[in-house]
TrEMBL record:
Molecular function terms from GO: DNA binding; sigma factor activity
GO BP, sorted A to Z: DNA-templated transcription initiation
UniProt xrefs under Gene3D superfamilies: 1.10.1740.10, Winged helix-like DNA-binding domain superfamily/Winged helix DNA-binding domain
Keyword Cell inner membrane: no
InterPro entries cross-referenced by the UniProt entry: RNA_pol_sigma-70-like, RNA_pol_sigma-70_dom, RNA_pol_sigma70_r2, RNA_pol_sigma70_r4_t2, RNA_pol_sigma_r2, RNA_pol_sigma_r3/r4-like, WH-like_DNA-bd_sf
Family membership: Belongs to the sigma-70 factor family. ECF subfamily.
UniProt key word Transcription: yes
Domain of life of the native organism: Bacteria
Record's keyword terms, sorted: Sigma factor, Transcription, Transcription regulation
Pfam family, one: Sigma70_r2
Stored CDD domains: Sigma70_r4
Residues of the RNA polymerase sigma-70 region domain: 16-73
Protein name: RNA polymerase sigma-70 factor, ECF subfamily
Length: 170
């Protein structure tokens, strides 16, 4: 294939590539840039195109790989290297420092609420909380599995009512 034929084929396929670029980038300007980058790479790598193969598929592959490479570069730019002695990689979107005091208070309130439950509800609930399966709890307490499910459901309902103070906290 001559250079003129190759150029003509690329120009014919550029219209087909634009919707794919828009789908990838979701922005018209970025799609135009991606299309241009794809065409430049195709022209510069003309010698790598095997005549008789599907040029459209070849161009789609170039576009997809270019998009992925550009995305990876963008992600790398959003991360910076801390050059202190610790040499940590820090995400530039900001750091959040949280202590566990709030969680400790919440867990205390939860366990106090569980202690206020009747034993017929708290025992199956605590076993389920510790990771036991319904059938294991039923075997251990010698009660039907339906009763186990019902008691855990009632325990959750009581706890939900008792712990309404935590309803709007994320």
């Amino acid at each position: 294939m001559t250079s003129v034929e190759f150029s003509y084929s690329l120009n014919q396929l550029s219209g087909v590539l634009k919707p794919f670029a828009l789908k990838l980038t979701r922005d018209l300007d970025d799609a135009n840039d991606l299309l241009q980058d794809t065409m430049v790479k195709a022209y510069t790598n003309q010698d790598k195109f095997a005549e008789g193969t599907n040029m459209k598929a070849w161009l789609y592959t170039i576009m997809k790989n270019t998009f992925i490479t550009n995305y990876q570069k963008m992600v790398r730019r959003a991360t910076f290297v801390d050059t202190t002695d610790n040499l940590h990689f820090i995400n530039s979107s900001g750091a959040l420092i949280e202590n566990s005091a709030y969680g400790d208070f919440a867990m205390e309130d939860i366990f106090e609420a569980i202690e206020r439950l009747d034993e017929i509800f708290s025992t199956p609930f605590l076993l389920y909380y510790r990771g036991f399966k319904y059938h294991e709890i039923a075997d251990r307490l010698n009660i039907p599995i339906g009763t186990v499910k019902n008691r855990i459901h009632i325990a959750r309902k009581y706890l939900k009512e008792d712990l309404t103070v935590y309803k709007h906290i994320n």
